Amino acid sequence: MAESLALCPRCGAEKDLPLGRCGACGVVPVDAEREIALLCSTRILDVPALRAAQERIRRGEPLRPTEALRARARALLLGEEVASVTFTRGQIAGLALANLLLTPLLGYAVWFRYRTRPGPAARQALFATVPVSLFLLVALVAWRVALLTGNA
């Protein structure tokens, strides 16, 4: 399973977004299903708990979350609580590539956006941005030194 993922509460298939359409069965969670769909994601459960839920769903067992978990899902849906944010490896790689091809300011903007939110997203943004920034700084300094010494 990926770092940030969700499960379809009907078939147990993995998907990227908890409230998005399931690629396997095509279901989009609506009404009360949105709570359960949010519960079946890394926004609330850790990966081992998701694996256990996935096995129960695939065996056809109904999910019976505690009232505390349901209340947390409702709070997230209503915007009363901020969800923990984790980027996938693909998102981190895309950010690093954007930093390299466009500007590292993108990575610092992502860091700034997530710096006060729970979860590792801000740290992951810096992980993808700082090495690119240092590489570009060293390349710029080397180029300027080469220009000044006449080696370019």
Give the amount of beta strand, in percent: under 5%
General shape? elongated
Figure out the total of helices.
6
Counted up, domains total 2
Helix residue percentage: 40-55%
Based on helices, strands and strand pairing, what is the structural class?
A: mainly alpha
Mean pLDDT: 89
- Order of strands, main sheet, comes to 1-2
| Oligomer category | single chain
Order of helices and strands: EEHHHHHH
Please tell me how large the radius of gyration is: 21 Å
Low-confidence runs: none
Largest β-sheet summary: 2 strands, antiparallel
Q: What's the count of strands?
A: 2
Distance between the termini: 49 Å
In short:
This protein is mostly helical.
What keywords describe this structure?
152 residues, mainly alpha, two-stranded antiparallel sheet, 6 helices, 2 strands, 55% helix, elongated
